[in-house]
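Supplementary notes for students who missed Thursday's class. We covered one full example, reproduced here. Read the sequence, then the structure, then the short commentary at the end.
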Amino acid sequence: MSEKDSKTDRRDFLQNSFLGAAGAGLAVASTTHVAIAEEKTTPKTDHTNEVDVLVVGGGTAGVIAAIQAGRAGAKTLLVERGSQLGGTTTTGGVAFPGLFDAWGKQVIAGIGWELVKESVEMDGGDFPDFAKVPQRHWHNQLYTNQFLYAILAEEKCEQAGVSIAYYEFPRSVAKTETGWEVDCVGFGTTRRVHCKQIIDCTGGAEVVGLLGFPRLREEERQPGSFLFKLGEAHAPGREQVHRVYVHGADSTSSVTATEANLTGRKTILAKLRKEKKRLMHLQPETGFRESFRIEGETIVSVNDYTSGRVFEDAICNAFYPVDLHTKQGVKPKPLKPGTVPTIPLRALIPKGSRNIIVAGRCVSSDRLANSGLRVQASCMAMGQAAGVAATLAAQSGTTPLEVPLEGIHRLLAEHGAILPGKA
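Structure (token representation):
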């Protein structure tokens, strides 16, 4: 039999199989065909990248940092150990980001707000009225379609010229004359990255830890949440889902994260059997609230946070109640009327470091301040500020802490961010 006849017979077999299934009353979903840009018989396993900015972690802060760096002209690589962008909003399932407003006005905007807004608009969702002060803070959070958010984030990275490497994570970092040499590993892949600046957006400041800089963490951690829904179908972008607390959840290693996921799924399975309902939605992993924080050039205290201290090197606003979760639950402590906290550049810089900056929940802060700073809108604002500082440092051959604050503010404003004190 010729190769042509073999392919024809296989095609006819598949068509007849589909017709047979349909004839038996089974619906066959339509299929859209796509092809990757390049098909190679022997995949390349060793890769080398020369970039200005390496962003490690494509979660809430990291994806915004990468887009900002790319838009500002930096050659940028984003390394993410998971399979999609968005972190807590997508993989964690907390598709309910906030808070972008405070006391009747918007205090956080920029690229993070752009991505959330576009996700809601494209999904036909609703927006809260930021001109009204809500009775409860969460009334002004936004229902967001997590699946749409993830693919829009990829599109914005592509448009900004950002390269993405999924399923990879740094295993070693070494200083060079011009910045860093970072060796990353993924299954079937090794990658060496030469970069001028690193933005650590890993949640637990994993790159900072690899470099041996000090990090902060208490013995007790806030519980994680595993999100699911029983009974009725989940309507993405329209509602929150159910959740179970995973006490002792620890994201600091693959072993501890595995244990958190196993524990969460086991609990949901027991609940499913008890309530005898259908499982309609299940997130792929636990959403973690707390891990390592850096010891930065300054540490934001809870008094700094609740007083609305405007730091002399403030690079963005933040807003959320002090929100510490415990075994007994959570009782948010609202900020006093008119209070809008700020985040200083020095809290994003590991103490004594050069050419590295962080963004996200690993910001240098005490535990109570961090319980308010760790939420999505504030992490997005930090990510954009870190993207600006790293880009300007790479372009001028200096380190983020030595970049003039006026230059950081100017570029942030050009890209739609709201500057501290300018809401």
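Commentary. The domain at 46-218+292-326+336-414 is CATH 3.50.50.60 (FAD/NAD(P)-binding domain). The chain has two domains: 46-218+292-326+336-414, 224-282. If anything here is unclear, bring it to office hours.
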